[in-house]
Design a protein that fits this description.
With 350 residues, the chain is α+β, with helices and mostly antiparallel strands. The protein is 23% helix and 29% strand. It contains five helices and 16 strands. Strands 8, 9, 10, 11, 12 and 15 form a six-stranded mixed sheet that branches. A five-stranded mixed sheet has the order 4-1-6-5-16.
Length: 350
Amino acid sequence: MLKTCVSLKRDMEVTEAEQRQQVEEQVEKLLSGQGSEVSGCDVGLEQSKPAALRKTVTYIVCAVIFNDKEEVLMVQEAKQDCYKQWYLPAGRVEVGESLEEALKREVKEEAGFDCEPITLLLIQEQGPQWIRFIFLAKVTGGSIKTPSAADQESLQASWWDRQSVLALRGRDILRLIECGLKYRQDPWHPVTLPMDLSCRHVVQRLVLVFTNAEQRIWILLIKAPVLHLPTAAAVKTHTVTWAASMVVQEAMPSAYYDQDVNTLGVFSLQHNGRQHGKTDGVCFNTLVALVPDHVQRNEDGEKAEWTGTGQPPPVENPRYVWHEVQKQTLREKLLEKTKNSSVLPIHCLY
């Protein structure tokens, strides 16, 4: 009987060791820009509705396209509220479209060109109900739209040298154009394009890390049914990246206010969109850093001396556990990305 118990315990230990190894392998896949099926949601699902275009979510695609002179492609608006003003080719994703299909359609309709996306440059969001995906793209065919082809989509398209006076619909695009120029000159994150993997909700899959001065690094995991990275649903009342804060609040409530929860960016994203109301969601595979707030206060609100332990905050919820990364190459990659934020940025516009 004793031998059987020892054997069982050994088998359980091996199983957990294997699970931890599998998690490290999954993190390596995410770091390389890959994804994996969303099999469930660990946090926030009860506060989230399935994503459905035109009902619960709006996705915008926006194209930043340059010619050989580094002039940027612009379109003149036909809509009454911004008539004759200029903007980047952009528009809403329609039911049944992938993000890339929507991008190609909008550029063709508004500018006359066929295009291919090169990479996502930036993601902007105001919660799950409004997310804009900004792509760097290139012309592959077609011809520029002239005033004779004006329609309800746009009046015409033109290449802008960024110096000439142009009546802009919004100055927000200046930042996007600069972002595109910067990426062309010195790419600061790997090429990132949406992967065709379905998801019902807008969710954030977290590689949530804690590092110390000795270059040790831990990842927060959920225990059941097997060890895995937490997945949290975006809720309508908050930004998409608030999902990371919900996880930290649930895992270690006592330490929450002594930590900064920083979503550094997106390794990869997953979207399908072909089945309306069933696959309209997006999964953002994100790198999140838990950083101690060195300015701490006592019960009277006075600044207190901060004393770090070099260990991650203790987990209080039995659902969670910290896993210290063992594989040296993975540890080095995570530390490098944490320091340099060399991942696709996601910006909250709240």
